[in-house]
Write a structure and sequence with these properties.
heterodimer, A: 240 residues, mainly alpha, 7 helices, B: 223 residues, two-stranded antiparallel sheet, 9 helices, 2 strands, globular
Chain lengths: 240, 223
């Protein structure tokens, strides 16, 4: 990322503005355009943000895992920052999914939590993402990056096997999107707006964290450069 | 070369283990303690329910399998031989493989000793011993390989004792779920088709870990 894009972050500000506008529009649609569900009542309105957040989480975490693999094969600071910010954003959305989900589940299933396939998978993904970020925070910088990248790339195929395992249990998750379930046009429009809003919101968070991490990397490189210069100057000055 | 070096490292570890009798004894004792604690947790009117056997067994093996894991690598590190063992003529693979085999040996022996104790404490019998043993073998294999990988990666990380289970348990989730389900079904005399699905899943998991772990280990360790 060039220096000018940090000093004049026009693209980022535009993204932020559009995302904010869309989130407000989505809130308006959820409140006034979509009618309350006939059977589930008003609590069904959680659906719009819940499902969108789940999609954002899956996209962030899977790209985080894939980018980690790329960084492991061909190390690059930029890819590392992209992967790390993706996992952080994915973790934030996992928390959103797991707080909005139980609120809905309580009303429609009668329980805050069930060991249902997608709930279990989301919970395990959250734990894995948190563990990867924890290692990243605690390990020494160079090795921590590699360890976290290795575990993050392993997490994607393992997550698939978790999915297979919990799916064999069977469950009661509503298959709204696969079943073509949304009938009312108001609900359809609301879902589309909410999906777009959350997608742009996720992109904003991702970009924001990416920029912060890139700045941290530049700061670190500058520090290294300066200390190297110091050493050189001391050598040239001769022993005192 | 790879096999010979792995065998050499394994021989060395075995000799140390036989002479010091350190880690393995504690691992076994810890497993025994786990079973006792589970029996207490599941007590109903003075009886531990036989229905809890699969869960108690698998979680005991999961927990006791983490006890000596880091020690396999920190012992090398303290002896100053870790870096040497990472730079053999066959790369870092012999180190990882020998540690995974060592762990498999430890956990295998623990399992064989702890399984009868679980059955006695929970007053149960194995309905299909062959299936349960096959599931245990698949579970321990995957757990040993992944455990060795994670321990190898974390050997120089601060708070590694805390981080190891944090990383390992969610990654082992498919194996634990499938192992418990297979054991439950075997105890209920389920038909072979129902069992094969779960055993197949464990096989796929093991294949993935065995294929990927050495590569990931080499990528992280090599400079």
């Amino acid at each position: 990322m060039s220096t000018s894009s940090f000093q004049r972050p026009l693209g980022f500000l535009a993204l932020l503005a559009v995302a904010t506008a869309l989130v407000l529009a989505a809130l308006y649609c959820v409140a006034f355009v979509a009618r309350p569900d006939v059977t589930l009542g008003i609590v069904q309105k959680i659906f719009y943000f819940h499902v969108s957040s789940a999609i954002a989480m899956m996209l962030c975490l899977s790209s985080g895992s894939l980018l980690s693999l790329v960084d492991l094969v061909a190390p690059s600071d930029r890819v590392d920052a992209l992967a790390r910010s993706a996992i952080e954003t994915g973790l934030a959305f996992a928390v959103l999914v797991l707080t909005s989900g139980p609120l809905w589940a309580r009303k429609s299933w009668g329980a805050w939590w069930t060991w249902e396939p997608r709930l279990t998978l989301t919970l395990l993904l959250l734990l894995l993402a948190a563990a990867v970020l924890g290692i990243r925070a605690l390990a020494p910088d160079g090795t921590g990056r590699k360890i976290a990248a290795a575990l993050a790339s392993l997490a994607a195929p393992v997550a698939y096997l978790i999915h297979v395992a919990v799916a064999k249990w069977g469950g009661t998750h509503p298959m709204v999107l696969q079943g073509g379930g949304i009938q009312s046009p108001g609900m359809q429009i609301t879902f589309r707006v909410a999906l777009l809003a959350i997608a742009l919101f996720a992109a904003t968070l991702w970009t924001l964290r990416f920029r912060v991490l890139r700045l941290e990397q530049r700061l670190l490189n500058l520090q290294l450069e300066f200390s190297a210069q110091d050493v050189r100057q001391q050598r040239e000055g001769g022993p005192t | 070369m790879l096999l010979r070096l792995t065998w050499l490292l394994l021989q060395k570890d075995l000799r140390i283990a036989l002479r010091s009798r350190e880690v393995f004894g504690f691992m076994l004792l810890f497993a025994l303690l786990c079973v006792v604690v589970f029996a207490f947790g599941f007590l109903r009117e003075g009886e531990a329910a036989a229905a809890q056997v699969p869960g108690a067994l698998w979680v005991t093996l999961l927990f006791s399998g983490t006890v000596g894991l880091l020690r396999l690598f920190t012992a090398e590190d303290e002896g100053g031989t870790l870096q040497l063992a990472q730079r053999t003529l066959a790369g870092p693979h012999p180190l990882l493989l020998s540690k995974a085999l060592m762990q498999l040996l430890f956990s295998g022996v623990t399992t064989l000793l702890i399984l009868p104790i679980v059955l006695v404490f929970f007053d149960a019998a194995l309905a299909q011993p062959g299936v349960v043993l096959a599931a245990l073998a698949l579970g321990l294999l995957g757990q040993a390989m992944l455990g060795a990988l994670v321990a190898a990666l974390l050997v120089h990380v601060r708070l590694r004792e805390v981080l190891l289970p944090l990383v390992l348990y969610p990654l082992l989730a498919p194996l634990l779920i499938a192992g418990v389900r297979a054991t439950v079904l075997a105890q209920a005399h389920a038909p072979a088709e129902a069992l094969n699905g779960w055993l197949g899943l464990m096989l796929a998991y093991d294949a993935l870990v065995l294929a990927v772990a050495p590569w990931l280990h080499a990528r992280v360790v090599e400079v």
